[in-house]
Amino acid sequence: MPPQIPHSDPGTPETGGPMRYLWWLVRRQPWRVLRGSLLGTAWMIGLSVRPYLIARAVDDGLRAGDTRALALWVAAIVVAGVGLSYLGIMRHRTMTFIREDAKARSAAVVLRQLSRIGAVLPRRVAAGEVATIGGSDIDWSAQVLTLTGPGVGAVVAYAVIAVVLWSISPMLALCILVGVPAVGLVVGPLLRRLERAESVYRKQQGALTARSGDIVAGLRVLAGVGGRDLFARRYAARSRDLLAEGYRVGAVNSWIDAATVAIPGLFLAAVVWLTARMAVAGDVTIGELVAVYGYVATLIVPVWFLLEGSHQLIRGRVAARRIVALLQLAPDDVGGPRSAPDRRSGVPDRRRPDVVSAPEHPADLHDPVTGLTIPVGRLTGVAADDPSAALALADRLGRYVASESTWDGVPLTGIALDEVRARILVADHDSYLFPGTLRDILLSRTESDDARLNDDPLSAHDDRITAALRAASAEDIVDALPAGLDTVIDARARTLSGGQRQRVRLARALLAEPEVLILVDPTSAVDAHTEARIAERLRVARAGRTTVVLATSPLLLSRTDLVAHLRAGRIVATGTHTDLLQQDPGYRHLVARDSADPDVDRPADVEGAFP
Q1: Boundaries of each ABC transmembrane type-1 domain copy (predicted)?
Q2: Which domain covers residue 482, as residue numbers?
Q3: Is residue 125 predicted with pLDDT exceeding 80?
């Protein structure tokens, strides 16, 4: 039976290097690998049995005119053929299991690693890199395990045939023993060149895949700002570079493939020519001539497997190196414990001196890096001149990275992580949407499961859902769906538009009702009228609770209680939106640049947009 890796522990991989990782894949299924090696060896050696049987049929049957002996040897040839067929089937089946186990195991450890490092992944590895690792690198690394079956058998068969030929002619055996290593010397430089070319190609392929994903994700924005043609030209140029690199890889591959076929053929021709001259001289019999031809022709199979295995090893090592690089990534050390102690604000637990409780009541958040203080119970806007600085701020306030941020004077890193996650929510505008009904997407897993256990599971949370959808200006999404809240949405909600997905994410965040809600650019994909409604309704929906909006939209910022201008990594000004428009030219330029209204920097006009 094939292994059920997805439902079991794949084990802890060796990440000391690509070869150690490949050896780990072998060690995780030792008995199957041993069976594959035995079957591969038996099959390879069995290939050399038939030339011997044919030689006996020629010498003992045909040349001696012994019909009975001829019939016996022919029957032996048939039996050997049937046995080889069975061994070939079992070998292939076992090696398929070995490769599939390795694929499933690699996929499991990669998936586990991706979930473990979480938010670190986009900052460390491009999406294209992850796609190529999951798509082709896992497959290539598994192909290397073919060496454990036919590869081992090829080495043993090579030795056996050399011994058999030695009994016929030491000169022929010497040709075999010297000729096969010579083949390796010819192909070796090509394999090293392939490894270099393959590494460059895979790296460029991952970068281009990441770029294509970014372009598709931002296609509407690019079209809106007139940048679609520019990015198309850049993508085409990168694609041509990748194509040229692919041609280089293909050229090396073609030489290796040609050598894999041509060199053994030339080797066979040379040995047969030498044996024929020996037969003419009477040094070997006709049957031995036929046998030598059969042995050398059989030897092409193990030689081909050795060359092909070397080819696979090079590709597999390149692939394994990329997998190991991903597995070596470590999640950011966010510090602190994961579970909560007794609820005494800021007081260490005697049993766990490294643990402090979160504030018992809503409290201010402070970020020393920027100098920003988030006042409790108010709607605060943060306008950053650099989007990456805004994301870094959200990561620190949500304790997704190690920082010196505090909550009511208590370091966030000293508070239990599960308590921070339960009370502080960072809602990204592009967060993942899992498949399911719209109701399941909006509700938390606990709420959804509890609702299904009730006698009336649908209406229990519908009022809250309706309120959240209204606050996110998303009622029209439900109205347009054929089954309303019960409509099944696919992964990432691809059937919805970008603006609809963004409003669903906002409604989901509001339904969570966290004590502190940090919204990252929550209206970047909606039109101005929808954004204005969201800004007004968000203020009402989160009244009295701490809310942070990281955005540069004047429609959102004008509805906040306080705005902080984040410039060059520091808060340079705070105040109301109107005050900053009058007093801070940098802020005025920042928010006016994102507005369709050229006069948005005039406070009266902005306030007048909301009667």
Answers
A1: 36-315
A2: 365-592
A3: no
